[in-house]
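Continuing from the previous page...

OK, I double-checked the sequence for Meiotic recombination protein DMC1 against my notes and this is the correct one:
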Amino acid sequence: SPLPQPRKKPLQPGGAKESELISYLDHTIRNVKGRWAKRMFKDEEVEQGEAHGYHSFGEAAHDIDGLVDVVWVSGSPNLQVPYLLSIALLMTDFLPDFPPAPQATFRVLDKLDHAFSSLLQGKDSDTGEPLPGFESGRNISTTDKVRLKSIVERTRLIVVEALSGESREEESMDIDDEFRAEASETELSKSESENDDTVKFEGFDDFDSDEEDDDDREELHIAKVYERTIGELGDVLGGPPIGIITDD
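Thanks. Re-ran it with the corrected sequence; updated structure tokens here:
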């Protein structure tokens, strides 16, 4: 999902609304971390009244996605930069601890890429519309840019490792259930030929080619993780684009 429309003006630094938002974000991030820490616990093992642990990355991604939206709507660079960096760091902690979930992973990372590339430009990287708080030529500090570069590099490596497993959290159960349902209705057709006798499942002739197409699309998406942010960081920090190996 795209980033929501931010406020027209940043929150007043030190004001009541900013303090309220900071309290909300800190509380929510603590809860997200707490649910991640309880990921190995069964629901019945969690004390009554406490939030259950995450059982899939999709559950965690739903909460992280919501956090990104709230931070972005603030329209306040002094909050957007540090909190989005913290959220991006959460992704590097969470991804290795759950079965692969490509769709949820790319959804959140694409949104973070949009946010960071926009902040680095001071304008929405999709629409070109100036961002609140950047009218006076405000820039992200070099320290934050270096930190962002480190997180981006780490994330790209982790995504490759996290999504390289054979299982697919989002797909395995659905495919298994669908297969069982269709297998009960699908007739096995036995085709005789001059060379051999084979048993075929109707509708599964192109299964292997479909899997290969999915793998190709996934590899392409992995290569595009933080692609726009990388381009902006390459311009502001100098040197070759992140993720490209040189001979030097």
